[in-house]
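Case study 2.
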Amino acid sequence: MPLIITNEGPPTGGEVVFGSPSPPPPPPCVCIENLLCWDLGPEQFRRTTAELTARSRKVHDAVGSLDLDGVTLDNTLKALAHAEAEYTVQRNMLTFPWHVAPGLEVRNASADAREKLSAFDDDMSMRKDVYQRIVALGMKVDEGALTAEDRRYMERLLGESIGELRAKTKRREEVDARGLDTEARIETYLETSMEARSRGLLLPKEKQNQVKCINKQININLQTITCDQTNAALESVVRLHAQKSALLGFKSYADYALRRPMAKSAQAVSTFLDELTHELKPNRVRERRSARAAVRRPPQLREYFPAEVVTRGLLGICRDLLGLSFSPVHGAPAWHPDVTAYAVADGASGQPLGQFYLDLFAREGKSTFPYRAFCAPLQPSCLLPDGSRRTAVAAVVTNFTRDTLLEHDDVQVYFHEFGHVMHFLCARAEHAVFSARDVTAWEFVEVPSQMLENWAWEKEPLRRISRHYETGAPIPDDLLDDLVKNRSTADNMSQCLARSKFDQALHTQTGLDPAEVYARLSEEMLRVPGYRRSDIPPYRTLMDPSYIPYLDAHFYRYLWGEVLSTDMFHSRFKREGVMNPEVGLDYRKCILTPGASKDAYEMVKDFLGRAPNQEAFLLSKRSGEKNEKKKERKHGNNSKTTIGDFAISGLAPKSYEFKKCEK
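Prediction:
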């Protein structure tokens, strides 16, 4: 049954409620119903999938049958937005059990639902009649009647701004002296629309079906990769990507994939990676040394990271930093007895924000593949038709070992995924789509998670998340100092650069042998011999099966995101206090609360009070711990160019002031 989140009294048995044990009751305008059911049987999966697609198709049919001159905000844009909100929750409920359900029959039923819903999504994305109505609305809508989010949602559906749409149709009318009716104007616009081309709306039915078959085969390949098939799977996926982009009329798959992100073009990504490679090249000896030191971390370190202690410390950090409260939800329905649930509310007002599940430990049948761990955004927050707000629900899924003692690498992964949870639960967008990670600018998707990782490397937070599992003693200063001193993303950074270049090469050029490209990059960037196709396992340094799903011309986003997150962390938190609640509330307000409802670049500018740049990132990679104070003293807004210009030059520091968000 769906769960109604309630705020219970203080739990017994020594448990801790993070925040006020008796928060004020939620205001009536908040709908805190969790619509997710975890007790579906195989037949219910099949029936619910059929009912869900039928309801969604009915809405699309209604929009697609509207008279082109009769479209309105309510019968077109808002109808699609509300349908998408309901569809997203149910879709996640049906597909998520593929990873976590204990029973094989349920996992198989979930896998079948994933396949059917993916095919349905392809069908709906190619609805030319629906897209025509969106264009018609964009041509006539009173822009003054649009909220900022309505405009952003419409422009997301259009693939460009309303102003660009109107300019194109006006120019066409000026050229064609015959005069065009609405349908003809829309048809001429579609011929120049990048969005129409990328969806395959201009293709004949036969070629649309080819694109759908390619999408299906890509999904099958990515879900069935094994260690001894890495080479073949990679070659197959790259070939399918190239076939798809060619059918859609793009020069390369990278050009297709990068039509929306901040970078905008494959050339911009290539320039960004080349300049980073050049700037960070002198550090590789020190980086490899630091990485070896990390490998030699004393085995007793994990004795200070029991999972329960880390969880309590992590929640306490987010409570104090972001102004939140966390309360266990006792008896919450879930997919397995191991799973725990927490309700999240604003610490000051008590207003509910949502709920999250923690499914942390490995068990038979559970899979995080193709990820080491992941955050599942299950129910996005949004405004409902009656004006009330639905709260969000998310889950963290990891495969930590049963002894509950975590390696520090596990702690970093835990913080990373919980950063995604905080982004999802704190988002307060009007439309559900803007609470979802998959519509955030690709370069920004990992920024909130990379941000929270920083607290797994700072002394004060580390003390809060560590206690000896037997004695309860704090972590010794020498272990703590050694851990912090040897922080390095060295080989990770080199490998991330190499993987990003590998990804771009495979998706911008045709006829490449992945093994040959891999060998060259291994030797040039990692200073290790390049392995050939015959080696077992193949791609053992740059590649393993878990990385192939990331090779979609977007792998560079981890580097781009780290430039942004490092700038924000060092410019605000390191200067003003890593546990400074005022900075934390600024961060929540400027970065987390908007979700994807604002431009990512503008959100970072709001938080920093200036345009982001790469200075802090480069300094953090060039400086060891002994130079930390010098680095912080020197850091400033020095660059004449910014990350928005893809430049890495201009490193002479200047001073600058920070403009905080208004509370």
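The chain has 26 helices and ten strands.
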